[in-house]
Design brief:
Length: 489
């Protein structure tokens, strides 16, 4: 048994929890992720409590709920001044810490405790606005952009395929495969492994931008799905496809496209990006095995949030449905680390905030009292099969889509804070949320219980969403909780 295990955190952006072979998806091929799951524990009820890039990553690094880290919606340009972040705490505990790929923090070179950074955040419009003082630093902090220009020409950029970074349009990568950002993250991660201080345990985060758009996997991956008959998106009795036609945008859309062929092409492009990532993860796992350190390493695979992928005529994230909030989460604990379970599936409700306390405990480091996430170590080692939590409160602020949800292992209650609209789904029997039971006579007692839990979760919040006894719609939503950011995160 090793005194302090190595830790490899493999992170994707915008990957749904159901898009793996091991999760039973009928179309997506993920042989390496399936192998990780067979050698470890897969959490089927893992969630992102605030499903967009920045607040999700804040939960991951701070071990805090969105109410505690203060980011309850998406907002660029807000400094990461948290005192106790996972990379710093592991550095303090004697780890060699390194991040490769996407961090999406501010300022862009904020280390968050990592000793080394090799960054590529993708195309983030905020840093490319001409009036933004950070535009001059866009290429200076992004190591991949510099690599791409040196390899493919000074005019090369991540958008050269013609696809916008929030678009459902897809087409294959136009440069050589090894220049793709997914390959680059893997190559740089392998360099980090080879150059590490071998007298120290390592914490390496390999963070992929895909399958966040642009969906531009190399052509061989796109061809795998291009002619495949793909499962249709989920549709329910509550869908509003008219919003898709009203929206009509090819970029930055929340409602996708109504064209069945373009939807199918988009799904093919999304799945192609996932299989591409899977194969690149295989390069890393094989290297750990060849160096005989795989069994001394905790490998974690997860995503920051999901992707609606045209389910219910919706696209992207931030909404409270399973495609958006349910994420993949796999822990593979090496055999030289005490008690790692194998080929296990855990149905307990867990969240991104639980990752930091779990890794700190397994590294033998102290868990700060500021963290309200819960260690999953007992579930990973088989010491306990008890619940981490009975239910989870999640949310996302931002215009008319502002929402809150309460989800358990078996069901979900949703409240849209601007309109007051409610929904209820029996996830145990309807995992694709195709039957809204909010008005069903036999469900009213359960709905009342979950509504009461949301009232409890929102009591005392500065937005005024409740008076302690009822939910109050129409209060102005906030992306940041002033009570957190004015007193220090």
């Amino acid at each position: 048994m090793v005194k302090q295990p190595n830790i490899l955190l493999l992170m994707c952006d915008q990957m749904r929890g159901d898009c793996m072979g091991t999760a039973g998806h009928p179309d997506v091929k993920t042989p390496y992720l399936d192998s990780l799951a067979r050698d470890g524990v897969r959490f089927v009820n893992a969630y992102s409590a605030c499903p967009s890039c920045i607040p999700a990553r804040a939960a991951l690094f701070t071990g805090k709920s969105q109410e505690r880290h203060g980011r309850v919606g998406y907002q660029d340009g807000v400094a990461w001044d948290y005192p106790d972040m996972l990379p710093q705490l592991l550095s303090n505990a004697g780890y060699h810490t390194e991040a490769v790929g996407k961090l999406h923090v501010h300022p862009p070179l904020r280390r968050c405790g990592f000793r080394n950074l090799t960054l590529h955040d993708g195309y983030i419009g905020y840093y490319r606005k001409p009036e933004n003082p950070w535009i001059e630093h866009q290429f200076a902090h992004d190591a991949y952009i510099d690599f791409l220009k040196n390899r493919c020409g000074t005019g090369a950029d991540v958008g050269d395929t013609g696809i916008e970074c929030n678009s459902w349009i897809t087409r294959p990568w136009i440069y050589d495969e090894m220049s793709h950002p997914t390959n680059w993250v893997t190559t740089e991660t392998l360099k980090a492994l080879h150059k590490r201080d071998r007298d120290l345990p390592f914490f390496i985060m390999a963070s992929y931008v895909r399958p966040h758009p642009p969906w531009d996997a190399p052509v061989s991956y796109y061809d795998t799905y291009r002619q495949m008959q793909l499962r249709e998106p989920a549709s329910g009795d509550w869908d509003d496809p008219s919003r898709t036609e009203e929206d009509g945008r090819y970029y930055d859309s929340r409602f996708g496209t109504g064209d069945p062929e373009l939807r199918r092409q988009g799904m093919a492009g999304y799945y192609a990006c996932i299989t591409h990532i899977d194969h690149q993860i295989g390069r890393i796992i094989k290297t750990l095995d060849q160096e005989k350190i795989l069994e001394d390493t905790i490998v974690v695979f997860l995503s920051d949030h999901g992707e609606m992928l045209f389910d219910h005529s919706l696209f992207r994230k931030v909404v409270p449905y399973q495609g958006s909030i349910n994420i993949p989460l796999i822990f593979r604990v090496g055999q030289n680390i005490a008690g790692g379970s194998r080929n296990a599936v855990c149905g307990r409700v867990v969240e991104l905030r639980d990752i930091a306390p779990t890794l700190l405990e397994m590294a033998g480091a102290d868990i700060p009292q500021s963290m309200d996430g819960r260690s999953l170590e007992p579930l990973l080692t088989g010491v306990s099969a008890g619940p981490v939590r009975e239910y989870l409160h999640g949310e996302h602020s931002g215009g008319e889509a502002s929402n809150h949800y309460i989800v358990s292992e078996k069901d979900k209650y949703i409240w849209f804070s601007q309109s007051g609209r409610e929904q209820y789904f029996d996830l145990a029997h309807d995992p694709r949320e195709e039957d809204d039971l909010i008005g069903a006579p036999g469900c009213q007692d359960r709905i009342s219980i979950l509504r009461g839990r949301l009232v409890q979760a929102l009591s005392g919040r500065e937005e005024g969403y409740t008076d302690g006894s009822r939910l109050i719609p129409g209060r102005p939503p906030q992306n940041l909780l002033n009570g957190v950011f004015t007193t220090g995160a």
